[in-house]
Every structure is written in C-alpha cells, then in structure tokens.
Amino acid sequence: MNNNAPGGGGRFSPEIGRSGGQNHHGDASPSFRQQSGYEQHQFWFRRKTLGGNSSASNEQSSSQDWKSQLRLPQADTRYKTEDVTATKGNEFEDYFLKHDLLMGIYEKGFEKPSRIQEESIPIALTGSDILARAKSGTGKTAAFCIPALEKIDQDNNVIQAVILVPTRELALQTSQVCKELGKHLNIQVMVTTGGTSLKDDIMRLHQPVHLLVGTPGRILDLAKKGICKLEDCAMLVMDEADKLLSSDFQPSVEQLIDFMPANRQILMFSATFPVTIKEFKDKYLRRPCVINLMDELTLKGITQFYAFVEERQKVHCLNTLFSKLQINQSIIFCNSFKRVELLAKKITELGYSCFYIHARMLQDHRNRVFHDFRNGACRNLVCTDLFTRGIDIQAVNVVINFDFPKNSETYLHRVGRSGRFGHLGLAVNLITYEDRFNMYSIEQELGTEIKQIPSSIDQNIYCR
C-alpha cells in the first residue's frame, strides 16, 4: 500500500488563516478565547485537579485497586496496526474523568485512548469547537461520546447534548455505545430516528432525557413541535459530518442549530471532509481546533485486491471466494437495492447463510437484520451504501465490492467496514471492463494500491 497518500498529516492545527500559529478556541468562558491550546490544557487540568470533580479524584486515590474490581471483557489479543497503536501513551485517567465513567470505559473493553481520542477528548472537555478528521475504525465514536457523558450534569433533567448521525442503524449503534460507557452513570440516553413511532418518541421526551442521539429530520420535527427542547443543549456532535452536510441533511442541521443556545459547542467528526464543509465551519464554529490524523486515507491493515470478471461471471467468482477465504463475517456491496435482493437470493441458493439490508425495507426489519448480523447470527450481509457509514462490527474481516463504487469517498467508507480498530481485513473488488478507469482514478485519489488477486491468499494478511 502506498503510504504517501494525500491528506493532512500532523496532529492538530489552528484554524486556517489565523495569525500567530496558536490554537484559539471558542468556549463560553472568555478566558478560553485568549489562551493557546497548551495553556487551555493546563487551565483545564488545574481546574479539574483543584476544584472540578474532586470527589471522583478522592475516590480514585482512596481505592488504588478499583480496576481490579471491574468486570472486564476478555482481552482482544488480535494483531493491531499502528493506525491505533502509535499513540502518546496517555491513560484515560489522565483526563480526570468521573470515576463512574472510567468504570464504564474499562468495562467496555477500552484499555488506552486511541490517537483520535488522545487528541480530541481533552480539547472537547475545554468546551472548544472541533473539526476532526480520522480514519474509519480508529475510535471516533468514543472520542465524542466520552466528553459528552463527562460534561452532562445528571441532576439537571434537560437535554444537554445531541449526537446527529445520517442513518438509523448508526443512531442505534451510537446510542448503545453511550449507554454502555455510561452504564454506571445516571444519564438517560434516548435514540430517535425517522421510520419509528413519533408518538412513542413524544411520550419518551416527557421523561428525563440528558443525551439525544438521532437523525436530523426526526429531531427537527420534534423540536418544531415544541416537544424536544434544546435551549439548554450545550453540545452538538455531528458524526459522519460530511454526509450530514450533504444536500439531503444540511438544511435540517442548520435549522436545528437555531434551536440551541448561542454558546453551544459543536464537534464535527468524519473520515472525509469535502471543500463544502468550509462554509459551514466559518458560519457556525467559533475558532475551532482542527485535528487531522489522515496521514494516509485507507487503513493500514486492509489488503485490497481486484479480480477482472465479466458481469455474468460475478456470482461464480463470489462462490469461489467464499470457498477459498477464511471469513469470520463479510459485507458485500451492490449499487442498487434490486441487485442486493437478487444477489442475496443467489448466495442463499449456493448454500451460504446470508442476510440483506437496504433503505427501502421496513424499519423494524432493518433493525432486526442489523441486530442479528451484529450478534453473529449470519456470516454474510449483502447491502447498499446504507451500511457504509460508521457501522462498527468487529467480526467483519472481509468486504467484497460485488459492484464497484462510483467514487473514492464511497470506496473508502466501504472498505473501512473491515479492519476495524487496527485489526486486519481484506477488500476484494470485482471489476468489469467498464470499471477499470474508475478503479485507477480511485487509486490515484486515495493514494493507495489495489493489487490483482493472487491464486491463493495468505490468511495471515487478514486473519491474524
């Protein structure tokens, strides 16, 4: 894989065009606006040490062996690439988080912060706006869930943080992560998306909700009805921010921001940031800290192959791959919902277990498929690009592009479904004659290499 990919390099940088080379931040407190990034870190650490959360600090110091009392999951001993292992060596305790939140972090199986978590968590805790770019599968979700949970006052029964995501499946997944990390906190997490009962959401919002996760259209609908009250919401997180700022979502996002206080904090996370984001950043973010960890675009642990085939040979080629590869779980992408259903039927006829999912299915059916596949009920999932955004299923080690994607952004998100959090993965692309120029263009744009598939594939490159 070519390591000289385009993309930013560096850890974090001040807003482009600002003078002085310092990281200016826009917290509600004027003192933060006048300090450099380093000074803000020191200010925050002093504040936490001397005053903030002193009871949690005392509790930690009085129970040196508190970690030994936790119910930790079995350690993940799989090989990890330097995408997530090349860190500064920080510990989660270094951020002076609530003791109960630390318990949830470790019981979730997180051992140390990843690179994006090291960079974003302390800055987010200062109240600064963030524009963060990092690879898929490197820990972005926890990078914003942890500071959101830390900053919520569980005794104040109002919505204090909103996490926006572009798909219903990602909303369910993100809300589950929040609940698991905050399981020792008395923080009420609610998820709301289109395609579900509006009446149920209205009834739920009459109960305490501290953290709301959902899609922009549904949350905006509830806000306009006066049911979802956001005047005390101090934090807005935009996950897969580039998708949220597409023409499908941006009008709803901007209307939602109008319901929030003027001093709200906005955190934007994604693997890709098109030029169109700059206008939104300039309008809504106050001196944001820009974090760019995209020294290369594709994950180091994903090996990419192509196989030249004719359209009528694709199913036969797929059957051959199934028989030769060591698949834990695979995701197979098609470019239309009709092809998804037809291919899933073919795979089932070949004798392999297979689910399928696309946006035209009933929401209850989608939820059931997503839940069952995540829990390992089926080995193969055929889907449209509905499933490219942020879906994190650790067991997936093979991605197959049955239909090659049209652009580099879609390709990047698709192959990022394997090799999650530094683990190894395999991406196989079935390329027709018409796809060859598109594949070359994507290689150039991503600065990566897609190699011709060998007659036999070493399992060590995707199964260690």
UniProtKB/TrEMBL annotation:
Residues 53-64 have a biased composition (Low complexity). Transmembrane segments: none annotated. This is RNA helicase. Residues 301-461 form the Helicase C-terminal domain. Residues 1-11 have a biased composition (Gly residues). GO terms for molecular function: ATP binding; hydrolase activity; RNA binding; RNA helicase activity. Keywords: ATP-binding, Cytoplasm, Helicase, Hydrolase, Nucleotide-binding, RNA-binding. It comes from Tagetes erecta. Its main location: cytoplasm. It comes from the Eukaryota. The keyword Ion transport does not apply. Its EC number is 3.6.4.13. Residues 121-291 form the Helicase ATP-binding domain. Pfam families: DEAD (PF00270), Helicase_C (PF00271). It catalyses: ATP + H2O = ADP + phosphate + H(+). It is found in: Cytoplasm, P-body. Belongs to the DEAD box helicase family. DDX6/DHH1 subfamily. A motif (Q motif) lies at residues 90-118. The keyword Thylakoid does not apply. ATP-dependent RNA helicase involved in mRNA turnover, and more specifically in mRNA decapping. Signal peptide: none annotated. It is an enzyme of class 3 (hydrolase). Residues 90-118 form the DEAD-box RNA helicase Q domain.
